Amino acid sequence: MYFNSNTLAFSDGAFIKAQDAGCNLHSQSLHYGFSVFEGIRAYKTPAGTQVFKAKEHYERLHYSAKAIGLPLQYSVEELTAITYQLLELNGLQDAYIRPLVYAADAHMSLTAPAASNVFMAAWDWPKLLGNKMLRLMVSPYQRPNPKAVPLEAKVSGHYVNSIMASSHAKAQGYDEALLLDMNGYVAEGPGANFFYEKRGELFTAPCGSILRGITRNTIIELAQEAGITVHEQYFTPDALKDAEGAFMTGTAAEVAGVASVNSYSFNRPFAETLGGMLAARYQALVTACVAGATNEVVA
Ligand code: PMP
Asked: Is 215 in the pocket of ligand 1 (CB under 6 A)?
């Protein structure tokens, strides 16, 4: 699914066959999860393929690298140019893009490495959580203490927590997990932010124990443009008891409707909820031709 024998990936400063890309097995990143990454999407638009919010994603990659002290030698502009080249070389129009910054050399001590390497792959990836309404369960796995690790950075090691929560929820017959923070407030999903709707307003967890999602920010902006009030505030799962709708947001998942959280179900048809309306606006935005976008690969 991710690559075939013709696929090219960016690794160690060059475009090489994805099947030949590898890393040093003595890299600290593999042993300790000391690496940072991004998840980005490109969409086919009337002006050719455009990477949605490339600047925001690569600024977050820089923020993440800095937060853990991992060097990153490519600028936002260079990373954006590499992304467009990668898409063009692979003939991709709608694609998911995965940059990874990892410790370059054999380096096993518990200090940040002096040098990093950038790997970037792209592939065609349908909406990560599918199109069905999701049944979520509140996970027994909480988000880590934000004083232990920089939770707003997209660090590979944080995803042990995500994999534990998601695998557990699926093993219990649910579609996905919903994680609480260390104080028992709803935080987010394993790879997506969470919103709920009540009396025509939206609610989502504040920053602190969540990844500040770029889709989350986009949805907040779209909601505000539509005159909808968005509250970024702490809430417990009980707040969902009389909610009218809920949804998750993320680059890979886009905007995914939520049918229920544990025994609380949201019966309004998704298309009639704020989430349904914003999902449509999000699709229109990502496939629109963004004025002033540069480097687009003209199809
Ligand atoms: N939370 C987590 C833990 C994630 O992994 C993601 C996916 N990057 C998100 C939220 C959503 O972030 P974004 O909208 O920037 O993709």
From this structure: yes
169 lines ligand 1 (CB under 6 A): no
Helices (H), the chain: 28-32, 54-68, 76-89, 159-171, 214-225, 274-286
Task: Please give the CATH topology (third level) of the domain spanning 134-287.
Answer: D-amino Acid Aminotransferase; Chain A, domain 2 (3.20.10)
Secondary structure of residue 234 in the 3-state scheme:
coil
Choose the CATH number for 8-123 among 3.30.2000.10, 3.40.50.720, 2.60.40.3500, 3.30.470.10.
3.30.470.10
* Amino acid identity at 197: E
**Bridge partners for 144 per DSSP:** none
- CA atoms of 270 and 215, how far apart (whole Å): 18
Q: Ligand 1 atom closest to Cα of 252? A: 16
pLDDT per residue as tens digits for the range 176-230 = 999 999 999 999 999 999 999 999 999 999 999 999 999 999 999 999 999 999 9
* Ligand 1 centre distance from Cα of residue 217 (Å): 11
The verdict on the CB of residue 211 being under 6 Å from ligand 1 is yes
pLDDT, tens only, 13-67: 999 999 999 999 999 999 999 999 999 999 999 999 999 999 999 999 999 999 9
Q: Report DSSP state, residue 155.
A: B
- In 3D, which of 92, 137, 132, 133 has the Cα closest to residue 2? 92
- 220, 230 contact by CB (below 8 A): yes
Catalytic residue ranges: 154
Name which residue sits closest to atom 5 of ligand 1, judged by CA: 191
Q: Residue 202: CB within 6 Å of ligand 1? A: no
